[in-house]
Amino acid sequence: MPRCGYDHFKTSKERKGVSMFCAWGCRWSSSVVLFLLHVLLTLSPLHAIPTTFSVRVVGVIDGDTITVLLDGKEEKVRLYGIDCPEDGQAFGRRAKQFTSDKTFGRDVVIKPRDKDPYGRIVAEVFLSDNTLLNEALISAGLAWWYQRYAPRGENLRDLERQARKEKIAIWSQPDPVPPWEYRQNQVEARSNKKLKRRSIGGGR
Questions:
Q1: Which domains does the chain have, with CATH numbers?
Q2: Is 86 a catalytic residue?
């Protein structure tokens, strides 16, 4: 018996009548959750997406990006509304360790908000005690409020202000560089390096 729950018919005529059904029931059943998530994120307005998913965290890429197991497939999840320092920045590794300590090997609940250009699910991530990881990172002084992508994140803004006031972690530095500026500086530095090499090599 196939996974669709129905017997396949023996004659070609009968097979033709159910082939489309079985294409969904047999070949794609393991991807139903991912398909529905894609539809929700691409076709529905954000305020109309009530869906949450309980998933297991199987990897931590950096402070604001984790890898989860969703319907048997690994998916990258980018934390909504925040931006943690990069690995090459002060407190970048500490932010990653914070997220790892809270999530790695554990079940969390994700509430999708969007999908980014890299195909990652952008989401709020709730820990087992219902703590919102996005907010916890900002309160710990290990993330900026990413106003560009969460302009209405008043709570994130207020938590950042409090962390700044108390000079926690990144805010203990005299002039911390936001990660989006750091990334842009890295891109420009690599571009300048390429131009310099071409100049030395005679444009070859």
A1: 52-200 (2.40.50.90)
A2: yes
